[in-house]
Specification:
By secondary structure, the chain is mainly beta. The protein has 1 helix and 39 strands. The strands form 13 sheets. Strands 1-3-4-7 form a 4-stranded antiparallel β-sheet, with no helix packed on it. Strands 20-21-24-25 form a 4-stranded antiparallel β-sheet, with no helix packed on it. It is globular, with a radius of gyration of 20 Å. Residues 1-21 form the signal peptide.
Length: 421
């Protein structure tokens, strides 16, 4: 069991700045420990879809109804969202909003608040279609934030400064038509009329943004679309957010133009920028095929490469889905229900060179090969959420075994350790 003292962990946590703390913004100098901390609370049912960190408070969202403090036998009711103290692991007693349906996305807000997105329609019996901002002190909605997202679910959120980017499969924001992507005022929730980039021509039945990641000058989006503002961008594109109005960047790739299994017309999932924004990583589902393609893979792309871009490297699972990714500079962490990495010749089997990495793994950001880090986890559906912070890496999933210990659906791997090489 992990034996770091509370004082050492607290000292690391004091370095965390207030405001948004999301994967892709925090640089690690080493790979995290394979031994999770013992303080994280347990989610006793369902699945964790999203994690955010506001100051010293961790917010967990998903589809669940019961939680419990580590070391406790008392079950607490929490409806699809709860919060806990990062240092102690104790669940916040005053943050108990009732959300009628699952949470899919979270983003930390200023002033002890959190933005919450999902498929819910009500919070505490008041109408709240898909997006809200809540106070962490008592779970109440922040006055003055009145977003109007209609026609679908919010699946991803990214914020910086006065802007909140919203992705999903909705069709309208406020009184304006917005297909799957919108930019809102972070204080009022009003839709930004100048940001009207439109994903289109889905491979499946409905246009959808699955994931977003935001750096200082680019917004990366992936999902079920093949165009952005009419420009060919099969399942993945970059948007230049330094200009007004924002525009689709000239960067493009055909890496995800190919097909995977018919069950997965669109197969991109998690997406994350490196801390310096120079590259980003994408993970996919898709199913095993007869030839190595981009199904069930992790790939690195250079952000500022011009024109048609090929992946810098691709790492294959050999037939198992990946859903979540976090790039910290020291590693590209990947999670899903995979059995292997380094497995381009596997077809639901371990091919030559494959290494076992059940449910969670880490890839060298330069070589694209699996690192030695191998804590293991019970595979289940898979990891759906990572969040890197100055103290380590938070993990959210649907299973109860992480690093050979009981950590129900939430866990954290701490820093520092000796870097892998």
């Amino acid at each position: 069991m992990f034996a770091r003292t509370a004082s050492v962990l607290a000292a690391a946590i004091l370095l965390i700045p207030p405001g948004i703390a999301a994967a892709g913004t925090i640089k690690h100098s080493s790979v995290v420990s394979a031994n999770p901390v013992n303080t994280t609370p347990h989610v006793l049912d369902g699945i964790v879809n999203a994690i955010a960190l506001a100051g010293n408070t961790v917010i967990i969202g998903g589809s669940f109804g019961k939680v419990r403090d580590a070391g406790s036998t008392t079950t607490l009711e929490r409806d699809n969202i709860f919060a806990y103290d990062l240092t102690t692991g104790r669940i916040l007693p005053g943050f108990t909003p009732y959300l009628d349906r699952p949470v899919q996305a979270l983003a930390a807000g200023a002033g002890g608040t959190v933005y919450v997105g999902g498929s819910f329609t009500a919070i505490d019996d008041a109408q709240a279609p898909g997006l809200a901002r809540l106070r962490l002190s008592d779970g109440s909605r922040v006055p003055g934030f009145g977003p109007q997202i209609y026609g679908g679910t919010v699946t991803s959120l990214a914020g910086r400064g006065g802007h909140l980017y919203v992705g999903g499969d909705f069709t309208r924001a406020g009184h304006l038509s917005r297909t799957a992507l919108a930019r809102l005022d972070a204080v009022t929730g009003a839709v930004d009329p100048s940001f009207a980039i439109k994903p289109g021509s889905p491979r499946g039945s409905r246009t959808k943004v699955y994931a977003m990641s935001l750096t200082t000058d680019r917004l990366a989006v992936d999902g079920d679309f093949t165009t952005l503002d009419g420009l060919s961008r099969p399942q993945l594109g970059l948007i230049d957010v330094t200009v007004s109005p924002a525009k689709v960047d000239g960067w493009r790739t055909d890496a995800y133009a190919g097909k995977c299994k018919d069950d997965f017309p669109s197969y991109v999932r998690g997406l994350d920028f490196a801390p310096d924004g120079s590259y980003f990583a994408v993970v996919t589902t898709g199913g095993p095929l007869a030839a190595p393609k981009m199904c069930d893979t992790t790939a690195r792309f250079e952000t500022h490469a011009g024109g048609e871009v090929d992946p810098t490297w691709v790492n294959h699972t050999g037939g198992d889905s990946l859903y979540a990714v976090a790039a910290t500079g020291a590693a590209v962490y990947v999670g899903g229900h995979q059995r292997w990495l380094n497995n381009p010749r596997g077809r639901d089997s371990a091919g030559p060179g494959a290494v076992e990495r059940p449910g969670i793994g880490a890839i060298h950001p330069r070589t694209g090969k699996a690192l030695a880090w191998n804590p293991t986890r019970e595979r289940g559906i898979g990891v759906k959420a990572f969040l890197a912070h100055r103290g380590g890496l938070l993990v959210g999933s649907d299973t109860t075994q992480l690093g050979h210990e009981y950590h129900a659906r939430v866990g954290m791997f701490p820093l520092p350790i000796t870097p892998d090489s």
